Amino acid sequence: MDIQLLDSAVEMLAPCRRRVWRLWSVLLSVSAITVVLLWRSHEEVTTSDETERDDWVAVRLGRDQKEYVDHRGVHVVVGHYMGEANNLQNPPNLTEELLNSNMFDPRPNQGKDGQPVVIPSHELLKMQQLFHINRFNLMASDRIPLNRSLPDVRKKRCQSKSVNLTGLPAATVIIVFHNEAWSTLLRTVHSVVNRSPRSLLQEVLLVDDASTRAFLKEPLDQHVAMLPVPTRVLRTHERVGLVRARLLGAREARGQILTFLDAHCECTVGWLESLISRVAEDRTRVVCPVIDIINDDSFAYVRSFELHWGAFNWELHFRWYTLGGGEIKRRKQDITEPFRTPAMAGGLFAMDKDYFFEIGAYDEQMEIWGGENLELSFRVWQCGGSVEIAPCSHVGHLFRKSSPYTFPGGVGEVLYSNLARVALVWMDDWKEFYFKFNPAAARLRDRQSVRSRLELRERLQCKSFEWYLDNVWPQHFMPKDDRFFGKIRSRESGRCLQKPVGKGSINQPVGSATVVTCTAEPNLLQMFVMSPSGVIMTDESVCLDAPERDDSARQPKVRIMACSGTGRQKWSYSEQTFALRHASSGLCLSTGPDEALILQACSGHIGQQWQLESVPWK
Ligand SMILES: [Mn+2]
After folding, report:
1. Does 328 lie in the same domain as 259?
2. Which regions span the lipid bilayer (predicted)?
3. Is 140 in contact with 297 (CB distance < 8 Å)?
4. How far, in Å, from the CA of 347 to the mean position of ligand 1?
5. Is 207 inside a domain boundary?
6. 332 near 96, Cβ under 8 Å?
7. How far is the CA of 105 from the centre of ligand 1 (A)?
8. How far is the centre of ligand 1, averaged over its atoms, from the C-alpha of 301 (Å)?
């Protein structure tokens, strides 16, 4: 409000005094920018000092970066479903006229080389209002040219490794959108056109899923007609959702390779050849790029980590977790080699067109968005294909903190129906585990007709979900018949081990291991899995750990931390003495002075006695 008043005061001043004001504001902005830049470069230095691994370190680590990346574990939420679809606390005055106007206003150097855009202070109010339209900084996006430059964020070995393009099949790039901003949509398209070898790019297909914005109609058709690569806009007559819109694009595609992108991406050099060459070698590979981060406030391009793969938690929400041990070892031999991933984020991947249809394309009964990435991941793996991440292919994706989309029928209903379908078709016994602990999905279970998908699974003679867990994701933290699943209760106090509620990042709960009052109803917070190799773990890939060295602290504290596959997270349990012994130190899990747990020399004392109470999970 103050800024607006100041602005109108300036307008009333005489021309010469206005010039003085302008000069002052220019000087002020310049110094503000300098301070920001100095602060940023300082932060970059301090952050990179804190880590030994350069793998996930961002090119430019902004303040917001912490929300996405940390030392280990899960840090990026690729799904948009975490946001309540229409949770506008102070709905700004967004008129139809404003929504339908294209405010694209490029300034030559804004966002250059992936740099952040700085909005001058007198425009902040307008900026905040516009933010609500797409849930990202539309004003910043609209100032960046469609062909902005980006850094080559690939590893040096990727940059020097040349891909032989001769004989490689060409791709149709399919981009589905619904009321996307002009600048983000077309920057996606221009980055594809500018940074793909022409011989590998057959065409671009834009699928408009019933957008209502005026500028996405005629003006879009006219713009794409001028592009040097054949580009078509396909339009659905009514809102059909991501899955059916992608299917429409896939059926129309003329290229041999389907490459799906979200409508707010930016491709970097080398992105396409690294994907296509893998599919050309083996048509059953589904290949994903490394997904970098376009900051939703500043539009800075931030390099993401390469040492994570995709998986899911007990609620079937997609997550990034630290790569499994075997893959890390294999990767050390050649960091440019693609690595397998249990699941894909879903927005960005390439696969052979014929293979896509042979293995059942998409489940057309899935509505709008969500769960289709797990469905495709399970199906590809269980039916003989593979899903992998190509580290030499980097594509930036605009991550938002909430979803701008409307979900007809409500976000929960749509998502849980889709996930119920995934569970019913692909997860065998583990569907019971999912429904047991996710009542919102269980309520929708009987409404799903999945016969045709089960027939598909039969026809393709796909493997079991147990095979998938054992072979594709051996580090998983799901319950299984060969392992304990249930509560860990102190025989001294009768209390139960509970997962911390404090979160080290968006998703992964880390903190002290504590015991609290046991709940009567099965409660996921108090459920733990103990694998045959002695790892005590729970949802979100966190494990019982004792990071303090035995000699430095007399009574090392026990913590719950990201599972690492190291010996420090191994325990053994004795049904005779009820002791939980920490393998690497030989000490025993003991109740401490308060709720927290510690390690102590094993004495058989009642404070070291634990009851492992199995809970049926299917
Ligand atoms: Mn997206």
Report:
1. yes
2. 21-39
3. yes
4. 6
5. yes
6. no
7. 23
8. 15
CATH of residue 334's domain is: 3.90.550.10
State whether 469 and 504 are in the same domain.
Answer: no
Count of positions (residues) in the chain: 618
Q: Are 244 and 355 in contact (CB under 8 A)?
A: no
In the reported structure, the alpha carbon of residue 398 is separated from the centroid of ligand 1 by a whole-number distance in angstroms of 6
Residue 136: per-residue pLDDT: 95
Find the 547 Cα to ligand 1 centroid distance in Å.
Answer: 37
Domains held by the chain: number = 2
Distance (angstroms) between ligand 1 centre and the Cα of 400 equals: 8
Give the Å distance between the CA of 348 and the centre of ligand 1: 9
Ligand 1 centroid vs 183 CA: distance in angstroms?
Answer: 15
CA distance 436 to 618: 7
User: Residue 337 Cα, ligand 1 centroid: separation in angstroms?
Assistant: 26
Does 92 reside within a domain? Answer: yes
Q: Which of 475, 502, 519 delimits the end of a domain?
A: 475
Tell me, in angstroms, the distance from the centre of ligand 1 to residue 79's CA. 8
Q: Is the pTM of this model over 0.90?
A: no
Cα(99) to centroid(ligand 1), Å: 20
- Side-chain half-sphere CA neighbours of 430 within 13 A: 24
Q: How would DSSP label each residue in 543-556?
A: EEE--S-TTT-SSP
Which residues span the domain enclosing 72? 51-475
Reading the block at residue 193, the tokens are 């056109």
Q: For residue 346, report the distance from its CA to the centre of ligand 1, in Å.
A: 9
| Residue 521 shares a structural domain with residue 461 | no
Confidence of residue 322 (pLDDT cuts 50, 70, 90): confident
519 lies in the same domain as 374 = no
What's the CA-to-centroid distance between 263 and ligand 1, angstroms? 7
Angle at 66 between CA 62 and CA 68, to 5 degrees: 105
pLDDT, tens digit (0-9, with 9 covering 90-100), for 552-604? 657 899 999 999 888 999 999 999 999 999 999 999 999 988 778 999 999 99
> Which residue blocks in 400-524 are alpha helix, DSSP H?
411-426, 430-437, 439-442, 451-459, 465-471
For 407-418, what is the mean pLDDT?
A: 77
Is the pLDDT at 111 greater than 70? The verdict is yes
Same domain? For 491 and 415 the reply is no
Categorize the per-residue pLDDT at 504 as very low, low, confident or very high, splitting at 50, 70 and 90: low
pLDDT average, residue stretch 421-449 = 96
pLDDT at 328: 80
> Tens of pLDDT along 286-320?
999 999 999 999 999 999 888 889 999 999 999 98
Strand, coil or helix: 343: strand
Final residue before a domain boundary, out of 409, 443, 475: 475
Average pLDDT of every residue of the chain: 85
Report residue 107's pLDDT band, with 50, 70 and 90 as the boundaries: very high
In this structure, the answer to whether residues 390 and 516 fall within a common structural domain is: no
